[in-house]
Amino acid sequence: MSRTTTEKIERVTVSLPGRMVGLVEHRMQSDGYASVSEWIRHAIREQLKREMSPSDPSPDDDPRVEKSLSQFRAGDVREIDLSKFRT
Fold first, then answer.
1. Angstrom distance (rounded) from CA 73 to CA 29
2. What is the C-alpha separation between 52 and 56, in angstroms, rounded?
3. Is 82 within 8 Å of 28 (Cβ atoms)?
């Protein structure tokens, strides 16, 4: 089953220790991701690939992945203040 660009995006809230948030932010920036969300989606896709059986659909089948990477390569990114998301 291939996913389409009209698939609903759902928000998931994850609580992380401050040190882990700092590590994620550092990796996001050093690895060239446009946002923490993009980095986390990548990490989840990689984990799912490790756990997948050959008959499972690939998490890379989502066309939004390529769109996000294309936008990043074109410089279409914006700075975000992650501190307002911390509790």
1. 14
2. 6
3. no
Both structure tokens of 30: 């050093």
64 located within any domain: yes
Q: What domain count does the chain have?
A: 1
The helix or strand, by DSSP H or E, that contains position 46, with its residue range, turns out to be helix 36-51
Per-residue pLDDT of 18-62, as tens digits, reads: 999 999 999 888 888 888 888 888 898 888 888 877 676 666 666
Residue 73 lies in a domain: yes
Q: What range does the domain containing 56 cover?
A: 18-85
For residues 43 and 30, what is the distance between their CA atoms, to the nearest angstrom? 15
Q: Are 29 and 85 in contact (CB under 8 A)?
A: no
Class of residue 33 by CB neighbours under 10 A (exposed 0-12, middle 13-18, buried 19+): buried
pTM here is: 0.53
